[in-house]
Amino acid sequence: MDKQEYILEIHGMIRLYEVILENKCCGSGLSLLELNILNFLFYNPEKNTASDIVEYRMLPKANVSKGIESLVRKGYIRREEDKTDRRRINLYLLPESDAITRVIDASREEYFEKLFSGFTEDEMNEYLRYVGMISGNVRRLLKEEGKKQACAR
Length: 153
Fold this sequence. Notes:
The chain is mostly helical. Helix content is 69%, strand content 7%.
């Protein structure tokens, strides 16, 4: 596999997860963005701000804000001012999100089962270890590049 194919395959892996998620959640009335926000909060309860979602999911800030507002209106999440930093708004899943987060969890399990079909447990763990290393590099480099970009303005 060459470098260009690798980039296309990353997009394909993300799209496969989105397709599985959309198919399992098609009757929920939630957009893919809303599902992604719920997914993030479900699996990362300690990273519970809009900024965390933007940073880790690499989604546009305006889209995340709209998605959060919609989920608040629909009764799936609530906002709460942080007790130690009033500028920070924490997001919490409400009990009304339990049914959809169970479906999201099942979607994730199905995705990994399909993605790693034919892999041994050791092969899967090795791949995930490498992806973790790459992800660390990506986050670090994005922060560095973001600083350079801000200086260029």
